[in-house]
Amino acid sequence: MLNLYHNKAIYSGTGRRKTSVARVNLVPGSGKLIINGLPGESYLQFSPNYLRVSCSPLNLLGLDKEYDIYVKTRGGGLTGQADAIRLGLARALCTINSDNRIMLKSEGLLRRDARSKERKKYGLRKARKAPQYSKR
């Protein structure tokens, strides 16, 4: 989706993972990452793994210094949010140029990871863990 903000194009995409939802906006700029109003490094607790995962679509296409990333994310933990940002960023990059889609799809960055926590069943301690069996 394309919007205009101060005569700059804004490209947006939505990503989801587990219970996390991330709305990603790409604006032409210098390559900064802002998540919920905070610098991306401090929001993701300076974890190199979370930062690498979040910005992997831009790094793959070599556009890491050309766009500023503004993210509003909610729900879940940092792992789910980082993966949701990755999917939203990949979807936003597809709206910029349709040639990006081929490269992102071959790396599996456009696939939504549908795994989520399984519900607890009655009579069990967790989703599948049963109480210890007693023969007598």
From TrEMBL:
Return the GO cellular component terms, semicolon-separated. Answer: chloroplast; small ribosomal subunit
Per the record, the domain of life is Eukaryota
The record's annotation in InterPro entries points to: Ribosomal_Su5_D2-typ_SF (IPR020568), Ribosomal_uS9 (IPR000754), Ribosomal_uS9_bac/plastid (IPR023035), Ribosomal_uS9_CS (IPR020574), Ribsml_uS5_D2-typ_fold_subgr (IPR014721)
Q: Indicate the secretion signal residues.
A: none
Keywords on record: Chloroplast, Plastid, Ribonucleoprotein, Ribosomal protein
The record's subcellular location field reads: Plastid, Chloroplast
Extent of Basic residues compositional bias: 117-136
Q: Where is this region: Disordered?
A: 115-136
A biological process (GO) of this protein is: translation
SUPFAM superfamilies linked to this entry? Ribosomal protein S5 domain 2-like
Q: Which GO terms describe its molecular function?
A: RNA binding; structural constituent of ribosome
**Family per UniProt?**
Belongs to the universal ribosomal protein uS9 family.
Question: In its UniProt entry, what is this protein called?
Answer: Small ribosomal subunit protein uS9c
Q: What is the lineage of its organism?
A: Eukaryota, Rhodophyta, Florideophyceae, Rhodymeniophycidae, Ceramiales
Gene behind this protein: rps9
